[in-house]
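Work Package 3 (structural annotation) set out to generate three-dimensional models for the target panel prioritized at the project kickoff. During this period the team completed the workflow that converts sequence records into discrete structure tokens, so that structures can be stored uniformly alongside our sequence database. As a representative example, we reproduce one entry of 73 residues exactly as it appears in the project archive.
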Amino acid sequence: MQDVNRLKIVLVEQKKTSKWLSEELGVSPSTVSKWCTNSSQPDIETLARISKLLNVGVEELFNKKFMESVNNS
């Protein structure tokens, strides 16, 4: 799967852990781990919650190359 999100990078930039995020969202740490490795993706509602928790725009959670490929489709 293509690297769709930058969640792992944003967590590091924010000095937050995937465990912290899983607790805030009420999901399992393995779920957040899958998001961080891009083996699965959060749904749009969860992305909005992550964006709010990390105080970043939703667009900042997406990989730029992925966004370019979407825009060029």
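Helices lie at 7-13, 18-25, 29-36, 44-54, 64-71.
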